[in-house]
Design a protein that fits this description.
The structure holds two protein chains of two kinds. By secondary structure, chain A is mainly α. Chain A is built from 13 helices and no strands. Chain A has two domains: 61 residues; 210 residues, MetI-like (MetI-like fold), CATH 1.10.3720. Classes of the chains: A mainly alpha, B alpha+beta. The interface between A and B is medium-sized, with 21 and 31 residues.
């Protein structure tokens, strides 16, 4: 009789074993994920090019210094370019996405459903499909090979990602809008003074998404830059840096560049991680 | 405070469902109106249309005699309480309540005063600086009520405000809402699906079902005089008993036959006197309704029917007996279930066959097909047996000559025919032939219903005047409205009270391009001129006032005013500093205390847990020493290990709990201090700002007045322009023969209001009463041909024909007959017509 009962200590042992297995699995996974980063950081600190080893024989910060001082490539310029593109895009995209999401969630107008589906379908096409056309259009208006065109392209397509924000707004009861309407608020007041204070998570989520997009984007940027070093973004520039002939000399510097690029994004994510999760799941569970 | 008027309100969704169907209602100033009905009956939609949150498809909504169909919710001066409270979660209670007033730019000190007033009424004073999240459901609803009352709205709308609360709170809040209404005396409109709320709160209750109003009346009248089966079943618990039956009148008695059980019982006719006589023929399917308190268990000698009791339900002071009516053989019929209220429960048992009797004064009868009551409170017509010869009619023991129009309409015969006289076709006048005794003078909603008796027969008459009960009067019959039937066959029919015509709606430009009638042009020019003249006079008056004001400017010393202003600034700044310092001190003290409390809590907690640990160790040791049973030891050791493993977390959790409650208190106090400081500073700064404005005005009063004047003048000029535009709008109806008739402004407004631009593509049915026509002598009107004349003694009905896809007829009420086959020309009095849109069958005017 007694052995059929689960006693506390044996139960505890079972839990412990299960936890150990889970943790081993997670540790292995995290190693797999972290190895590239580790490799990148180590390479960026190594003094000579030797991609075969994990731990370099000697450490130096010279690569980071080179990155900003070397005159053969304008890294500073690339960094500023990318930052400006990402920042401006973020501002516009946040405004556009929140505005259109609110409109789709709250206003009832003709063709609302049709618009929503249309935007969704357009968003499903990969952006490079339109690349050639976009290039010729930009050439027509004389905007090729500069960073403004990238801002315009990013902002123009920004509304495509309205869906999560709309889902979030849908969870805010409509009666709040109605109460505010009766209280004497117009649509602007409702949006800025009632809905926005309640939507912090989704605002931050939208900011993060719109910042990281242009920050790491490669294909369109490289196409638009068209070899003009002054209008490249970091992604394009770094790629340009390690062409065949100077792979061996510049690889550690390239790695240092990678680390520098990752820093702003990391800071953003660490600071806003809490809201980011709330933003993604906000639409799923009614709060 | 305001009165409300709903006129033929419809809500039709794009897919064609009518959520609200022809709702017309007058709501008096200060009334408490409750909309009640099952879910999906359109009550909430109606409320939301009143609030302006839902568009009105057709019909008009008036608040204080202005149409508000297209007025924004915020400009309707209403307040609404929502089912889910709809409080702004990121604002404190104070901010929630003040939000509406802030948006209206009410000065801060007034806002503060009002919020405190509302909080005082609702007992929210201690919670003003809390967020809604930290409050219970009842408190939240109170905040929502507070937010609504503090704007002092014309109308308060409450949309199922109590349905999110538990039963006890609901009763409490119900009483509070009733008190609030008494205190504020504002018009309340309250939507609920709970009939108890409806009956207890409402001055009047509107019962709705599938978008239609079923009945509007006081709770008492709803209970006593339900107008159809739905209302009868909806109001009152337990539900009214319904029994299928037929009624058959035999002399002075009526036999009620219960079909399913095949049993009869007989009641005197006088207790069913108001029942529509058509239904007393034993053929119509009728539903009899009777409430449980009017079903009595009686001794055998009073027995009407017998019933088998199936079970009882105890209510404490009384019991409900559930059972079924027995058929002739004593077998209960399941379809005829009856609930009866009994007070002497102990005398009966389940399964007993008992004698029952109905209180016939509180029995209701409904037509089974239409579900409408057949006992109207005001009977529409009286039915008499009569004998008709070709020139006279014998009824109520008197022979009355027929008017010329009716002579020879009916062939001479000996049959007993049925004569129907509407209750408004009977008048009391000296000329009358029939003598009658006034039996009773019943007052129903401002109408006097006179119960008359002649030849041992009671009948009814509507009247504006009261008549003394017991007096003998002479009555006269309006022959234009009578109807004579031979069994089912109609022998003589009155002329229907309205003539229908088809028409289309046109605007001025279209009409002028088709029929350039100088009358129309002149009318429009006059209208515009009158409107402009009125506005010009208004502007001239305004100018005069302004000149007088300028002349009246008094010079006051600027230096004084400036000194006063400077002093005020100094004072207020000092006060602000003082307040800030005070608050800071308080906050510092609180923070210090909070830190100390936290420390104390930690020490106390540690001590408590150290004791606990020691005790457990000691007990376990003792147990081990004194016990040899292996199983028991194992169990005890498990317990000990659990305690040991959880000890640290338990200690921390307990401490956190204590600290959390301390923190909550601390933060609430701090935020309340900060918020009240902020409010006080705002008030002081506002004072400064106002004083500055005033100073500016005093420095140069002329310029100030000039500015004000220009602003006013601009507004007036805009008004003038609007008035001109409004006056230029003239609309027409096009009738047959391409005849255009000007639609009056009221009608045109209603049509455009109701249908928008669709108004020009719709077809309308226009119904005229017979005296809305005038005969024109100049041949300019609508041309018709006289067909026939009907002579009703003192008045004639002239039947005329016109062509509109076949021959159509109108009946003109006239003082004299007209020559048959003569062409005449008539005009319509358009203000007296009714306008109906034929496509959706929406009555618009």
């Amino acid at each position: 009789m007694s052995n059929t009962k689960t006693h506390y200590r044996s139960h505890k042992r079972a839990i412990l074993t299960r936890n150990i297995i889970i943790y081993i699995f997670l540790i292995v996974l995290s190693i797999v994920w972290l190895v590239p980063f580790f490799f990148l950081i180590m390479q960026s600190l190594s003094s000579i090019y030797n991609p075969m080893v994990f731990i370099p024989s000697s450490y130096t910060f010279q690569n980071y210094v080179n990155l900003f001082t070397d005159t053969t490539f304008p890294f500073w310029r690339w960094w500023i370019n990318t930052f400006v593109i990402a920042l401006v895009t973020t501002i516009f995209q946040t405004v556009f996405v929140l505005g259109s999401a609110y409109a789709f969630s709250r206003l009832r107008f003709k063709l609302r459903q049709a618009y929503m589906k249309l935007i969704l379908i357009i968003g499903m096409f990969p952006s490079f499909l339109s690349m050639i056309v976009i290039y010729f259009v930009l050439q027509l208006v004389g905007l090729e090979s500069n960073i403004y065109s990238l801002i315009i392209i990013n902002v123009a397509g920004s509304v495509c990602s309205y869906y999560i924000a709309k889902g979030f707004f849908d969870t805010i009861p409509r009666s709040l809008d109605e109460a505010a309407m009766i209280d004497g608020a117009n649509k602007n007041t409702i949006f800025f003074r009632v809905i926005m204070p309640l939507s912090k998570p989704i605002v931050i989520y939208t900011i993060l998404i719109s910042f990281t997009g242009p920050w790491g984007e490669f294909m369109m940027s490289s196409y638009i830059a068209g070899g003009n070093a002054l209008s490249m973004t970091v992604a394009v520039g770094l790629r340009q840096m390690i062409t065949q002939n100077n792979l061996t000399t510049l690889f550690p510097t390239f790695c240092a560049g990678g680390v520098v690029v990752a820093i702003p994004i990391m800071i953003l994510f660490f600071a806003l991680q809490k809201y980011y999760v709330e933003g993604i799941t906000g639409g799923a569970v009614k709060g | 405070m305001a009165s409300l008027k709903l006129e033929h309100i419809y809500k039709v969704y794009p897919n064609g469902t009518k959520a609200v169907n022809d709702v017309s209602l007058d709501i008096k100033n200060g009334e408490f109106i409750v909309f009640v009905g099952p879910s999906g009956c359109g009550k909430s939609t109606t409320l939301r249309m009143i609030a302006g949150l839902e568009e009105i498809t057709a019909g008009e909504l008036y608040i204080d005699s202005t149409i508000v169909n297209d007025v924004e919710p915020k400009d309707r001066d209403i307040a609404m309480v929502f089912q889910n409270y709809a409080l702004y979660p990121h604002m404190t209670v104070y901010e929630n309540m003040a939000f509406g007033l802030k948006l209206r730019h009410v000065p801060d000190d007034i806002i503060q005063e009002k919020v405190l007033w509302a909080a005082d009424i609702l007992g929210l004073k201690d919670y003003l600086d809390r967020k809604p999240r930290a409050m219970s459901g009842g408190q939240r609803q109170r905040v929502a009520l507070g937010r609504a009352i503090l704007r002092d709205p014309k109308v308060m709308l409450l949309d199922e405000p109590l349905s999110n609360l538990d039963a006890k709170l609901r009763t409490q809040m119900r009483a509070e809402i009733a008190k609030l209404h008494q205190r504020l005396k504002t018009t309340f409109i309250y939507v609920t699906h709970d009939q108890t709320e409806a009956m207890t709160l409402g001055n009047r209750v509107v019962v709705m079902k599938s978008g239609c109003i079923q009945q509007v009346d006081t709770p008492k009248n709803l209970y006593d005089y339900p107008s159809n089966i739905f209302v009868a079943g909806f109001i009152g618990t337990p539900q009214m008993n319904f029994l299928d039956c037929t009624l058959l009148k035999k002399d002075d008695e009526v036999v009620i036959h219960l079909k399913k059980a095949d049993v009869d019982f007989t009641v005197p006719y006088n207790s069913l006197i108001k029942v529509n006589p058509n239904y007393l023929d034993g053929n119509h399917d009728i539903v009899m309704g009777i409430r449980c308190e009017n079903v009595h268990l009686v001794k055998d000698e009073d027995k009407m029917l017998s019933m088998t009791i199936s079970h009882f339900e105890e209510l404490g002071s009384e019991s409900l007996a559930y059972g079924s009516i027995d058929d002739i053989n004593g077998n209960p019929i399941d379809e005829l279930s009856v609930i009866s209220k009994v007070f002497d429960r102990l005398n009966y048992q389940s399964g007993d066959h008992v004698a029952i009797a109905f209180d016939m004064d509180h029995t209701y009868f409904f037509d089974k097909k239409t579900e409408e009551t057949i006992i109207p409170r005001i009977p529409t017509y009286n039915s008499f047996d009569c004998k008709v010869t070709k020139d006279s009619i014998k009824v109520l023991g008197e022979t009355i000559p027929l008017p010329k129009a009716l002579i020879n309409k009916i062939e001479d015969n000996d049959k007993v025919l049925e004569l129907q006289i509407p209750s408004d076709a009977i008048t009391i006048s000296e000329a009358g032939v029939i003598k009658a005794e006034v039996v009773r003078n019943e007052v129903i909603n401002d109408v006097n219903l006179i119960h008359l008796k002649s030849d041992n027969r009671i009948y009814f008459m509507k009247s504006d005047k009261k008549y003394e009960e017991g007096s003998i009067v002479n009555i006269d019959i309006d022959f234009t409205k009578i109807k004579v039937l031979d069994g089912e066959k109609v022998v003589l029919e009155p002329i229907s009270s309205l003539d229908s015509m088809k028409a289309y709606f046109y605007n001025y430009q279209t009409v002028i391009s088709k029929d350039n009638n100088p009358e129309f042009v002149k009318f429009r020019e006059d209208k515009v001129k009158a409107a402009l003249d009125y506005m010009d006079a208004k502007i001239a008056l305004y100018k005069q006032d302004h000149e007088k004001e300028i002349a009246d400017i008094k010079q006051i010393s600027i230096a004084d005013a400036e000194a006063k202003f400077a002093e005020l600034c100094k004072n207020n700044d000092a006060l602000v500093e003082e307040k800030k310092k005070e608050t800071k001190e308080k906050i510092d003290a609180l923070t210090k205390k909070f830190k100390e409390d936290k420390k104390q809590a930690k020490i106390a907690n540690d001590k408590l847990f150290a004791e606990k640990k020691e005790q457990e160790n000691r007990e376990y040791k003792e147990f081990k020493a004194s016990n040899n049973d292996k199983e028991a030891l194992k169990r005890r050791s498990d317990e000990y290990h659990i305690f040991k493993d959880n000890f640290a977390t338990d200690r921390e959790n307990t401490l956190n709990l204590a600290i959390n409650s301390l923190t909550m208190d601390y933060e609430a106090q701090i935020s309340s201090l900060k918020a009240s400081l902020k409010r006080e500073i705002e008030v002081l700064n506002k004072e400064k700002k106002d004083a500055k404005e005033k100073l500016k005005e005093e420095r140069n009063p002329q310029a100030y007045l000039e500015k004000k004047y220009k602003k006013g003048l601009k507004a007036l000029e805009q008004q003038r322009e609007q008035a001109r535009k409004r006056a230029e709008l003239v609309f027409f109806f096009r009738f047959a023969q391409k005849k255009y008739i000007m639609a009056s402004d009221i009608i045109a407004n209603k049509l455009v209001q109701g249908l928008g631009t669709r108004v020009f593509t719709k077809e309308f049915r226009i119904d005229f009463p017979h005296d809305a026509y005038t005969i024109r002598l100049d041949n300019q009107g609508f041309k018709v041909r006289v067909v026939d004349n009907y002579d009703y003694g003192n008045t004639y009905f002239v039947k005329v024909a016109y062509e509109d896809n076949g021959e159509k007829y109108l009946y003109i009420r006239n003082q004299e007959p007209l020559e048959v086959n003569k062409e005449i020309s008539i005009d319509f009095d358009i203000t007296r017509c009714q306008v109906t849109e034929t496509g959706m069958n929406i009555r618009l005017y």
